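Pasting as-is:
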Amino acid sequence: MSALARILIDRGHPVSGSDPHDNAATQQLKTLGVKVFRQQDATCIDAVTGSTNAVSPVVVISTAIPESNPELQRARQQGLEIWHRSDLLAALIEQQPSIAVAGSHGKTTTSTLITTLLLEADQDPTAVIGGIVPGLGSNGHSGQGKLLVAEADESDGSLVKLSPSLGVITNLELDHTDHYTSLDDLISTLQRFAGGCDRVLANHDCPILQEHFQPTAWWSNQSSESVDFAALPSRLEGDRCVARFYEAGQAVGDFTLPMAGLHNLSNATGALAACRMEGLPFDRLVEGLAVLKAPGRRFDLRGTWKGRHIVDDYAHHPSEVKATLGMARLMVSSGRSPLPSAPQRLLAVFQPHRYSRTQQFLDGFAQALQNCDLLLLAPVYPAGEQPLKGICSNALADRVRNLKPDLEIAVADNLDQLTDLVRQHSREQDLVLAMGAGDVNGLWSRLTS
């Protein structure tokens, strides 16, 4: 929502909105001229309609806004035009050539890498991303170039409204079980998205995509045969990946990605392939690769506290947790990492996100969370859901203990207790990796306050 607000005000539209929490995003929007209300009640709508004489304002909502929201109720009473955020994004996409990135994992990173590569190639794209793009310092940008890059969120199915020039699909795996009844339901939704794209680029290494999709082009990190683009790794280290890039089976050149993990190499390969499909020269893209950085909340070093490196990551699905812990473990075992010093132990802090997701993937989380030296669990972050009987962090801890009895595990009753557990159980040269899509990202500020 904040990215869309930035673009609209940059293009000369008066913009207002409400957020009970003052944060970096709202502060940035205020400096740009966005009117930000600190409360969410009917008077906010009254204030906007009372100050707008020429035209009636359009009210833009996200799926997170319930029908009981007083602003939404007043907007309906006044007969105002109401758009879902996907309607606004679809309207922006219709105005210019665009690349929209969809998939279960890696959307924010891949769309951030595409944006960064285009910026480094002097293309100045418009960007609507779900995380902070390091090269922009924000999640939204109204560029002067021809392309728009957007993250296409599948969580509520609204991405089917988007009709980009190029659709990129990173992978597919069941998630968001509060919306999708089955994997087939999710596949059908992504097929509708693909059908609305002029061209589609997809990850050949994902078996579900292989079986159910017929894209314009494939990319792979496993083989250069029978795919349009490939990047085959020669070295995977704790702070970088070294790979050779192929097009139509022919080697084009080597590159070094300054990010660890095979999942990041896959994201970067998709980003490179998308830019090549837009006609950018490989040599120019290689220059941009050297400065690539992950978006905010993707293995984001928040700081070093008493010799402990505190890292924040958005991982909240078993596959994401497995990939993130695998990357962190490589940093410990290889002695190479982007951290200020090589970590000696891996302390995982995990906050399950939603009761429904925790219930669906309890065994998957237990499998993924074994790859650490010590595990601390926060209470489930409800994200508006009501508790489910027997679904809690203690139940997850029991599953992990059954799989790895010798792993030290502690469960906190609240975030203050979680912070105390980190203080008690961590030691110098630990990598403290906080994972989750909720408020566990505040660990750094609680440790240092």
